[in-house]
């Protein structure tokens, strides 16, 4: 893709499942030539993670939705790295690549001669990104790491869910593998930083990226809430520890999210709700006061919000510049007129089904836009072409 922002880069993708493939798909969307290495028999683990599947005209499964979500715009090369021939072919590809992305256990690729130390000898400019659960060093380095367990170990689940003592209370994981996705995004940031450094120095480098490190770093304000007080934040359900009202409220036909970020917005809400005195009440006039008196204020707000439907509240609150919104199902998300206008669902060419649905990249570059060249490839679909291309050089 000659007009892609990263069309000058070749990525050798030795990763599988989500964090690594998410990073390499993002690079591919931006124009990089991404060669995905897969086991000849089973391929990426997520090819078998279904249902649901994309199906053909006869209703037969073609590919898992999971694999499709994170492998578009890539080429699939089927090689067995456990064999001497497979190792030699991968080394030859690495010698002519800019970036390697891998998520094997610590030391797992050294026995094949495919670790950073081995490949950097044949390609000193190589940028090699290793993604593991716990990093290349430390007492947990040899442990396998999966998103769910990292959400628990990294503190996210201690902050997610209803408080203990309430019906349904207890820790809850996020509904998508968020730590994997965040790790993929950090991988792209680290890789592009290494590319920028290489342009100045001519040197490649090794990137050590751990899911646990990413999860802890992304605790954001909650991490600092603990570090400045020494007290662990507690689960608040949909409420916010430092802003009130900033949570979901019941309406006449469902729920409404109120995201009031300042005192002016709260005063506007009170006027629309027919209770202007609330914003003048010393217990509620400032955000700090509202946080202190949330147990008094929130029940009052609930009594007010149930008197209108969600749509009615959104109409009047948007007119008053009060941030609010519904809680949508995915069906409602993809039917939302703004989501439709932004083109967040795309149909990508697929050799069997004609097209496959995909979620668009959120990156909107004015001169080098993301291109959707093709859906996730069939296992080994590009093996002969890629190997022939490299052997001819």
Describe what you observe in this structure.
With 393 residues, the protein is α/β, with parallel strands linked by helices. It has 2 domains: 10-218 and 343-391, Rossmann fold; 246-328, 2-Layer Sandwich (formyl-coa transferase, domain 3), CATH 3.30.1540.10. It has helices at residues 19-29, 65-68, 84-95, 116-122, 147-153, 156-159, 178-201, 211-217, 220-229, 263-273, 277-280, 287-292, 294-305, 310-319, 330-335, 337-341, 383-391, and strands spanning 10-13, 33-38, 53-55, 61-64, 74-78, 99-102, 127-132, 205-210, 246-250, 255-259, 324-325, 345-350, 354-359. Strands 5-2-1-6-7-8 form a 6-stranded parallel beta sheet, with helices on both faces. α7 (178-201) crosses α8 (211-217). The longest helix has 24 residues, at 178-201. It starts with 9 loop residues before the first strand and ends with a helix. The model has no long low-confidence stretch (mean pLDDT 96).
CATH class of the largest domain: Alpha Beta
What class do helices, strands and sheet pairing give? alpha/beta
Give the beta-strand count.
13
Total helices: the number is 17
Beta percentage is 15-25%
CATH H-level homologous superfamily name of the largest domain: Crotonobetainyl-coa:carnitine coa-transferase, domain 1
| Count of spatially separate domains | 2
């Amino acid at each position: 893709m000659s007009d892609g922002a990263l069309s000058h880069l070749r990525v050798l993708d030795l990763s599988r499942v989500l964090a690594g493939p998410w990073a390499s798909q993002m690079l591919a969307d931006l124009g990089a030539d991404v060669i995905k290495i897969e086991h000849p028999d089973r391929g990426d683990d997520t090819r078998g993670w279904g249902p649901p599947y994309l199906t053909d005209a006869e209703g037969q499964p073609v590919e898992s939705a999971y694999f499709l979500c994170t492998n578009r715009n890539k080429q699939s090369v089927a090689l067995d790295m456990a064999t001497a021939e497979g190792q030699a072919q991968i080394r030859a590809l690495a010698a002519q690549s800019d970036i390697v992305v891998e998520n094997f256990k610590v030391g797992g690729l050294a026995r094949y001669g495919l670790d950073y130390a081995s490949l950097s000898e044949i390609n000193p400019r190589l940028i090699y990104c290793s993604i593991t659960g716990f990093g290349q060093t430390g007492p947990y380095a040899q442990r396998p790491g999966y998103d769910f367990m990292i959400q628990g170990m990294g503190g996210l689940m201690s902050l997610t869910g209803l408080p203990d003592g309430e019906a349904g209370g207890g820790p809850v994981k996020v509904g998508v593998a968020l730590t994997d996705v965040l790790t993929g995004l950090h991988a792209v940031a680290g890789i592009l930083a290494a590319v920028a450094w290489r342009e100045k120095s001519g040197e490649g480098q090794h990137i050590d990226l751990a899911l646990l490190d990413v999860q802890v770093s992304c605790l954001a304000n909650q991490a600092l809430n603990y570090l400045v007080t020494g007290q662990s934040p507690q689960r608040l359900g949909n409420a916010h520890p430092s802003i009130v009202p900033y949570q979901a409220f019941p309406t006449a036909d469902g729920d409404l999210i109120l995201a009031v970020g300042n005192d002016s917005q709260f005063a506007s809400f009170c006027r629309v709700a027919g209770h202007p005195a609330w914003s003048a009440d010393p217990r509620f006039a400032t955000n700090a006061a509202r946080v202190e008196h949330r147990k008094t204020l929130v029940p009052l707000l609930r009594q007010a919000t149930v008197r209108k439907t969600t749509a009615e509240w959104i109409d009047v609150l948007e007119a008053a510049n009060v941030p609010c919104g519904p809680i949508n199902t995915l069906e409602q998300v993809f039917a939302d007129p703004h989501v439709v206008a932004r083109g967040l669902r795309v149909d990508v060419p697929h050799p069997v089904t004609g097209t496959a649905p995909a979620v668009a990249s959120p990156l909107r570059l004015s001169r080098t836009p993301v291109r959707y060249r093709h859906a996730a490839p069939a296992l080994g679909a590009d093996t002969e072409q890629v190997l022939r291309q490299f052997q001819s050089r």
